[in-house]
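Re: weekly structure request thread

Next one in the queue (329 aa):
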Amino acid sequence: MRLIGELSEESLAKRFAAYMMTENISPKIEERDGVWEVWVKEEDEQERALEEFNRFQIDPDNSRYQGVLEKAAEIAREEEKKRRQFQKNVVQISRKGGVARRTPLTILLIVLCCVVALLTNFGYADMGKNDTLQALSFTSIAPPEAELVLQKYDNDIENSNVRLASIKRGEVWRLITPIFIHFGSMHILFNMLWLFQFGRMIEIRYGMFWMAVLVVVVALISNLFQCLVPEKVGGSVPGMANGHLIMALGGMSGVVYGLFGFIWVKSLVDPASGFRLQQSTIIILVAWLFVGSFFMGNIANWAHGAGLAMGMIAGYLPLNIGDSPATRT
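Done, posted below.
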């Protein structure tokens, strides 16, 4: 709070405060020893408010100050309406039963990831022999076809036709399914904790259908980006394992960053959504994205970045639903 000046009459103080509200400045007036002090709530508003105060003192009856009390009252009513809607959303979310019943998709995704982790020895099973890894990997071509694919494209694993070999055979589920593969207990633990935190927020507020759409779109885009950018700048490429051409890519992090980006933007552009993120959460995830991009070569940074971008874009959509040795991502 910053004091910007004093006025001798209550009517003048109220008129100026109302004008400040119409100018998107948050004022506060207080009576002290027979004079009315005018304060602003935000420090970055002080300079502008002081300029307006000096102008007001020179000519308080100027036409620009006419009718401001009525306009300020309308603004206050709108703010109160938004506040009540926000409280209503928070109350509705808090009363909507147990987590498992209200967030079936989030729980299902966590269960599937855990099952896949057990079936793949947390991603460390032999990729050339493990049926689950072969079924879920972005690229998975069994011998002898694997050799034929490589020969056709001069053994260039960077070639997009090699990377997309399984997709081009009609196995489109592979655009999504790498999100269920994890490499190591810590990898899956942290991803599931973030998925539970962000997934339940979105699913409770907007429902299972929108949550599913968001997960599928973010997974598809983040996996494609990670698997198509050049290896020298952090892209993922397939390799050979017991004659099997397979890509060691997996993780829910691209989706997690997408959910995070969605909630982050929604909390800024739509206060009525009821979303709030702690500053520490934002710092941790943004810092991890930076650290992974510049200091850790085995992290699927393109998946993280693409997922975050897609989630933030989705956050701008005017939704009114609800009530209705591997590369890690």
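Residues 321-325 have pLDDT under 50 and may be disordered. DSSP finds 13 helices and eight strands in the chain.
Next request, please.
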